[in-house]
Backbone:
């Protein structure tokens, strides 16, 4: 095992640490899940930088079990939207129980997903169930869901920091993403992130802005 010096770490004064943390928390407090996107281009470099930030996430045994499929505008979008809406229609009509539909009601969602064609970029995030070693053998991955979840969080935070809005879309099931994106079966679709600028008349549900106070989600021992 080779170890290298931690020569890129810089310790900050306590006051600066607090200021940075509070500033970032305040910025993320304005993050919104948006469903109304402007049909306006966003430089690819912005999204690529955000994906690069996501790949810095920690992962089980440093196996980095993620793959990001970046989808711009094109004919593929109509196919993707049709597949997603087919699953969503079945979800709202058959799969979702009354309790689930009641929980979704304040958000005003339904099976229609026009943003899948309107937004300039979609990022399909895949979780690698296992890897392939240099000799072609199957390589076990560890803590896949946790690792990809952390990477997704970094991706969302970076896109917000760059001035874009996002939507996390999880049609169930998502197997069609393997076909649309040309990804192997060993990769499981994790989430579909929609990103771009908000439409001029974009609105978000008031219920979605409610955050649990810190004393409800934090304990000290």
Residues:
């Amino acid at each position: 095992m080779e170890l290298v010096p931690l020569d890129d770490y810089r310790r900050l004064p306590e006051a600066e640490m607090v200021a940075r943390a509070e500033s970032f928390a305040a910025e993320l407090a304005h993050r919104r899940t948006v469903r109304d996107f402007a049909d306006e281009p966003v430089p690819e470099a912005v999204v690529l930088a955000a994906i690069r930030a996501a790949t810095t996430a920690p992962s089980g045994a440093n196996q980095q079990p993620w793959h990001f499929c970046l989808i711009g505008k094109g004919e593929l979008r109509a196919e993707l939207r049709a597949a997603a809406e087919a699953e969503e229609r079945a979800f709202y009509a058959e799969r979702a129980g009354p309790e689930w539909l009641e929980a979704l009601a304040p958000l005003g969602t339904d099976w229609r997903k026009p943003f899948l064609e309107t937004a300039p970029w979609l990022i399909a995030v895949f979780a690698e169930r296992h890897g392939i070693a240099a000799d072609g053998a199957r390589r076990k991955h560890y803590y896949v869901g946790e690792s990809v979840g952390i990477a997704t969080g970094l991706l969302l935070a970076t896109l917000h920091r760059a001035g874009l809005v996002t939507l996390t879309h999880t049609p169930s099931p998502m197997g069609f993403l393997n076909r649309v994106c040309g990804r192997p079966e060993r990769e499981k679709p994790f989430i579909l992130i929609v990103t771009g600028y908000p439409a001029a008349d974009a609105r978000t549900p008031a219920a979605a802005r409610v955050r649990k106070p810190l004393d409800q989600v934090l304990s000290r021992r």
User: Anything to note?
Assistant: The chain has eight helices and six strands. Helices lie at 14-28, 44-54, 76-95, 98-104, 115-118, 144-161, 176-181, 214-217. The longest strand covers residues 187-196. Strands lie at 66-71, 121-128, 130-132, 138-140, 165-169, 187-196.
